[in-house]
Amino acid sequence: MTTAQEPVRESLPAQRHSKAELRRLALEAGRALEDADALDVMRWAADTFGHRFCVTSSMEDAVVAHLASRALPGVHVVFLDTGYHFPETIGTRDAVAAVMDVEVITVTPRQSVAEQDARQGARLHDRDPDLCCALRKVLPLEESLRGYDAWATGLRREESPLRSLTPVVGWDDRRKKVKISPIARWSQQDVDRYVAEHGVLTNPLLSDGYASIGCAPCTRRVQDGEDARAGRWSGFDKTECGLHV
Ligand code: SF4
């Protein structure tokens, strides 16, 4: 497992594609791979980008990391450690790093929680969660993706109305990278089936009433019948952290 970003970035292979070529690749693959098997999507990413391709994971489960490692052993798995995660999430990260053929890269914000508290006041997440997410998730992700041409996420269309149009392969115009969501078309049953078939690691909180797992102060258990993401930022008119908009 790696925590320092610069040594990893320095070891990345040279860029193969210009930004214009990346955009063209994204649009072409978006059409060609829309109905493709998730593993085939990952194989395309591995063949096209090599180790300039990474996976981001919240450590809710390791499904996408597992798919990616089958296509690209040693694939980089970027984990944003906000300083507010549940111990179970950190434990899942450590288990993934220990047993899977991946390189987990833990990315931390520029400021520790204590430094942020000193500058912004305590419990920023209770007062301005958009700013807290910007400082502790969005900015660190921007910085960590700098050396890559393509990144994969575990977004699924059924998770929320905002995610319902997620392309399997699309163009991340904000970051000028190819964005891959290989399980965009999967249902929760598909995820559960893959986990069972391959013995994939999952966060133990999923068996404790949590349906979507983020930072501890902003995540609660969901009730029967609630949307999977209803437990995120409960009480706020906020459903996304800003990584995917
Ligand atoms: S999820 Fe909550 S604690 Fe985590 S970065 Fe966003 S606002 Fe801050």
TrEMBL record:
E.C. numbers: 1.8.4.10
Annotated [4Fe-4S] cluster binding sites: C132, C133, C215, C218
Keyword Metal-binding attached: yes
Described purpose of this protein according to its UniProt entry: Catalyzes the formation of sulfite from adenosine 5'-phosphosulfate (APS) using thioredoxin as an electron donor.
Pathway(s) per entry: Sulfur metabolism; hydrogen sulfide biosynthesis; sulfite from sulfate
Compartmental location: Cytoplasm
Any GO MF annotation of the entry: phosphoadenylyl-sulfate reductase (thioredoxin) activity
Domain Phosphoadenosine phosphosulphate reductase, residue spans: 58-220
Names of the cofactor(s): [4Fe-4S] cluster
Catalytic-site annotation from UniProt: C241
Gene of this entry: cysH
Gene3D superfamilies for this protein: HUPs
Class in the EC hierarchy, top level: oxidoreductase
Record-given protein name: Adenosine 5'-phosphosulfate reductase
UniProt record similarity statement: Belongs to the PAPS reductase family. CysH subfamily.
Bound cofactor: record note: Binds 1 [4Fe-4S] cluster per subunit.
Pfam families in the record: PAPS_reduct
Sorted UniProt keywords: Cytoplasm, Iron, Iron-sulfur, Metal-binding, Oxidoreductase
HAMAP family hit by this protein: CysH
InterPro entries in the record: PAPS/APS_Rdtase (IPR004511), PAPS_reduct_dom (IPR002500), Rossmann-like_a/b/a_fold (IPR014729)
Major localization listed first in the record, in broad terms: cytoplasm
Catalytic activity: [thioredoxin]-disulfide + sulfite + AMP + 2 H(+) = adenosine 5'-phosphosulfate + [thioredoxin]-dithiol
